[in-house]
Write a structure and sequence with these properties.
By secondary structure, the protein is an alpha/beta fold. The chain has six helices and six strands.
């Protein structure tokens, strides 16, 4: 049987954080900015990210999934550098991207993810408008791209995925393996919020069960980028 390799990279938090104007911190970004200055700048370093990507590419995977948090504060000036970096990681046909909560950090720039990275958000039935969920069939794999990224209140990292969208995960072909790619764990509570560690909803159980029947691998959130190359992808 031919081997198909799926590489998974998550929580990029592309470094370094560009210069921030004071007026851009007049919302929840101020907390994220302080967190970057105090903690994240020491974890999310460009040399670590470059080492991870080099290690990943050395294994020549058939497909790469980047599941969220490409940017830090969803600043307008963050998107162009990340778009250039994605071209170094892989071509749109071999690289699938979904947003995380930091990519929808504030309402004002929520639309910029699809505008900037739209080439990586195209399913097999793409009709000109990126939307979730979408499905990419690659070899024996059906990659289901899900998004739960929505702007939230300060100190909140929850997501949201409506029942109608959850049910759409049922779309891929019945043959072959299926893999769901998203940032938040597949779980819901009231109002379809997706808190970390919550119990799966019945809709998501249905999706997970179908994936299990097809010997699926569920791609969730990888560990934050650390020093050891390869630590955040599998």
């Amino acid at each position: 049987m031919t081997t198909f390799t799926l590489a998974h990279l998550s929580d990029v938090h592309f470094p370094p954080l560009p210069a921030v104007r004071l007026r851009e911190l007049a919302n929840k970004r101020v907390l994220g900015y302080l967190n970057w200055i105090k903690n994240r700048h020491a974890i999310h370093r460009r040399e670590v990210l470059d080492g991870l990507v080099a290690d990943l590419k050395a294994h020549a995977p058939d497909q790469i999934a980047v599941t969220g948090d490409l940017v830090n504060l969803a600043l307008e000036q963050e998107y162009a550098p990340v778009a250039r970096w994605l071209t170094e990681v892989g071509t749109p046909d071999r690289l699938t991207v979904v947003p995380g909560n930091h990519d929808a950090y504030v309402l004002a720039t929520q639309h910029r993810f699809a505008e900037s990275f739209g080439d990586y958000l195209r399913g097999d039935d793409y009709d000109g408008v990126p939307e979730f969920p979408f499905v990419r069939r690659r070899g024996p794999l059906a990659l289901i791209a899900l998004s739960s990224a929505v702007p939230t209140a300060p100190l909140m990292a929850t997501g949201e995925r409506g029942a109608d969208r959850a049910a759409d995960g049922d779309r891929p072909a019945r043959r072959g393996a299926a893999c769901g790619a998203g940032t938040h764990p597949n779980a819901t509570r009231r109002r379809n919020t997706v808190p970390r560690g919550a119990d799966p909803s019945s809709a998501d159980r249905k999706i997970a069960a179908e994936m299990a029947e097809r010997r699926a691998a569920i791609v969730g959130v990888a560990a934050p980028l650390r020093r050891r190359a390869g630590a955040a992808w599998s």
